[in-house]
Amino acid sequence: MSSRPKRASQNKKLEVNEQIGRQRLAKKLTVIDRPKPKIYPVAQSSILSRVRTFMPAMQKAQVDLYKKMKAEVSYELLKILRYFNILKMINIRAKKV
Hints:
It contains 2 helices and no strands. It is an all-alpha fold. It folds into 2 domains: 1-34; 59-97. The longest helix has 51 residues, at 46-96.
């Protein structure tokens, strides 16, 4: 019987210690004790300028590819529709005969 009150008091101590630990951790995380970093503009690099000139060319190529794909799909679709129209004509002629 004496072990139960002892366990309860130990559990209470653990809870108090956990609360104190959480409070300390929260305090450490919210207090900034290091100096604020100095941020400067980035100097112009050759890579950055090359990327800036490359991106419009890439965008133009993408637009051209889209237009080409759209035209090819339209052409293929037209061929398929013509093929089905020919099949319909053949079926209509076969039914008449």
